[in-house]
Design brief:
alpha/beta; D-Maltodextrin-Binding Protein, domain 2; 2 domains; 15 helices; 42% helix; globular; disordered N terminus
């Protein structure tokens, strides 16, 4: 083939690719916090064209302290939203709001309790410490901790998202996020804290879920399937492949994010099976099952976090996940 023919062939291929990209459906995905490694799989699927390959032109709308991206979805200005955990989904079902969870990218909730080295070596040891817990966490996680494990209201102190009191008092424990507070404590306090993952103690909710509206499922199921499949593939590549381009997008969206924070978060997510563990070993990343949703619903009713009688099965569907999509990308 001549050089001229090769150039023409390349130009034609570029035109086809450009036309295909132009035809891709534009959709938006609102996250529930600022860009970070914990959103890495979604940025990966944008960066490497995975969403585009199945027909979507995805815009990620970062969340933040003063941002309510779930309201954007409810208003029809975003097709997908990153749910925090299943309690939100149950509350939506209670209010007959037609939000449906279609995949769960985190099989374990990354909430943790931190303690000083030597002050607690097990979950049970935490009962002997005063634990700093934020108000929102007190209304959910800590209610379960009291009902299920015997923690008390009296031992709870108020967590204001400032680690200084914890750093200054070895008899304090505090709540945290697996990839955030332990990193901060090690950096500012100069020691590695004891870290207890609430999921490993039985707090069995999914987290970092993909939510959409029931109307979207009914009227545009192909877009939902593409987004779920693309997100699963994105997470496999982000955790096990080359995530350079995704991390560049994350840092562009959040200039405060640093390489060491990203590396720490990825290490913690993989080491603790946050994304890839349990059901994902057979169903693939994003797995969601009725058994696990029902188990968490029962626990929250027993703890008094939510009332019984909610149509919890309307809060999710297994139609789009559980197909093993992307499992071939797991390389180690």
């Amino acid at each position: 083939m001549s050089v001229k023919s090769k150039c023409l062939g390349a130009a034609a291929a570029a035109l086809v690719a450009s036309a295909a990209a132009a035809e891709n459906q534009k959709v938006s995905f609102g996250t529930n916090w600022v860009a970070q490694a914990e959103h890495g799989g979604f940025y990966q699927a944008v960066a490497d064209g995975t969403y585009a390959d199945c027909g979507l032109d995805v815009t990620i709308i970062p969340g933040g302290p003063q941002v309510n991206n779930r309201a954007l979805m409810l208003a029809g200005r975003a097709e997908f939203y990153m749910g925090g955990d299943l309690i939100q989904a149950f509350n939506a079902a209670k209010e007959s709001v037609p939000i449906v969870t279609v995949a769960a990218m985190f099989q374990k909730h990354p909430q943790v309790i931190l303690a000083h080295p030597g002050s607690a070596s097990s979950w049970e040891d935490l009962k002997g410490l005063k634990i700093l817990i934020a108000d929102l966490t007190y209304q959910s996680v800590y209610q379960w901790m009291m009902a299920e494990h015997g923690f008390t209201a009296e031992q709870r102190g108020l967590y204001t998202f400032n680690p200084a009191p914890f750093l200054a008092d070895k008899n304090l424990a505090m709540q945290g996020y697996l990839s955030s507070e332990p990193f901060l404590v090690a950096k500012e306090g100069g020691f590695e804290p004891e870290v207890f993952l609430i999921a490993d103690a039985g707090y069995s909710t999914y987290a970092t879920t993909i939510e959409t509206m029931a109307d979207t499922i009914e009227n545009n199921p192909d877009a939902v399937q593409c987004f779920v499949d693309g997100s699963a593939r994105g997470w496999y590549t982000y955790l096990y492949g080359d995530n350079t381009d995704a991390n560049a997008l994350i840092k562009e969206a959040n200039p405060e994010m640093t390489d060491d924070k990203i590396a720490y978060a990825i290490t913690q997510m993989t080491a603790n099976g946050i994304v890839d563990s349990g059901d994902t070993e057979t169903l693939g990343i994003g797995a969601i099952t009725e058994e696990k949703v029902g188990d968490f619903y029962t626990k929250m009713v027993s703890a008094g976090v939510i009332e019984d009688g909610i149509d919890w099965k309307s809060a999710f569907t297994t139609r789009f996940a559980n197909k093993g999509v992307g499992m071939e990308l797991k390389t180690n």
